[in-house]
Write a structure and sequence with these properties.
InterPro entries: DUF8159
Number of domains: 1
Organism: Halospeciosus flavus
Protein name: DUF8159 domain-containing protein
Number of strands: 5
CATH topology: Alpha-Beta Plaits
Number of helices: 4
Shape: globular
Radius of gyration: 14 Å
Length: 124
């Protein structure tokens, strides 16, 4: 993120993620997608990250979209362990977010799509 408003957004995101045990390493906005990389203390010794953590991170973005007037968008996340080693990637397509906000997608279906997007990065 480049300008002052981007720095403010990064600070807002970092503050909220830290309270979840997720430590922001990087964030950038590319069109309708927020690309984030964060360290997870929830990642276990087998390189697994609980899907509920992704749900909490998604809810942080949803809150920021609503409360701080961030542009509504998707999320592409890379989750690392505390040593910076990639564990998993997951995503929220911008269309899923718009459909959820419009009431065209249920919370359950939205969550299923996010969980289905998980890709293990630990073995690469």
């Amino acid at each position: 993120m480049g300008d002052e408003s981007d720095e403010i957004q990064a600070f807002q995101l970092e503050s909220r993620l830290t309270s979840l045990g997720c430590y922001l390493r990087e964030v950038e906005r590319d069109g309708a997608v927020y690309r984030v990389e964060y360290e997870s203390i929830a990642g276990d010794e087998h390189g697994r990250v609980p899907p509920r953590e992704a749900g909490k991170v998604v809810n942080v973005f949803r809150d920021l979209f609503e409360e701080r007037d961030w542009p509504l968008g998707g999320v592409e996340a890379t989750v690392t362990d505390l040593d910076g080693e990639p564990l998993v990637t997951w995503r929220v397509d911008p269309d899923w977010m718009r459909a959820l906000e419009a009431g065209d997608l249920t919370e359950v279906e939205f969550s299923r799509r996010v969980v289905d997007s998980f890709e293990d990065e630990g073995e690469n």
